[in-house]
Amino acid sequence: MEAVIFDLDGVLIDSEQVWDEVRQSFAAAHGGVWTATATRDMQGMSTPEWGAYLVSAVGVQLSASEASAGVIAEMEKAYAAHLPVIPGAVDAVREVASRFPVAIASSAPAVLIKVFLDVTGLPVPVAVSSEECASGKPSPDVYLLAASRLGVSASSCYAVEDSTNGLRAALAAGMTVLAVPNPHFPPAPEVLDQVRVLSSIAELPAALT
């Protein structure tokens, strides 16, 4: 194995609930009606995809680009007040980065990935947002792009994920996948059956060979 590629939301920062709260509040303020499936549907979507979803499925009375820009602005405010880094995540990434090239492959917009890296100071040379790809997770695009920028084959990478769509994306990319299941939005059991499951991100360094 030649590299380790991390998801961000739910793996390194406990942000899935923040995203959910911000999107729900924003939708309610702009004429939308939250649906029972909206939260899970949007997990893994790229910024253009979930912006369009807020308009088409939730009924937000804005353009897709206006919806996504508004939500991202609220997320920046939330992170400025408190960046919810998962306990043990920074130490785990530092230890892994001392042994492997590392990257982030995230559905988060680039501006929020940068906030995380600026605050933590982690040595992550490659950070890819699915904004740069044709499709978000569960498409493998963002993982394939991250591997390409690291200069390694996807099949020689570990991927670290927490959600159903993220796990599917990494599996579709042909990577060796380790799951740290999100306790708020547990991955589908049939997907977890295909990967190695860790109880916390702190277990990751010891799990890599």
From TrEMBL:
Keywords: Hydrolase. InterPro entries: HAD-like_sf (IPR036412), HAD-SF_hydro_IA (IPR006439), HAD_sf (IPR023214), PGP-like_dom2 (IPR023198). This is HAD family hydrolase. PANTHER family: 2-DEOXYGLUCOSE-6-PHOSPHATE PHOSPHATASE 2, PSEUDOURIDINE-5'-PHOSPHATASE. It comes from the Bacteria. GO terms for molecular function: hydrolase activity.
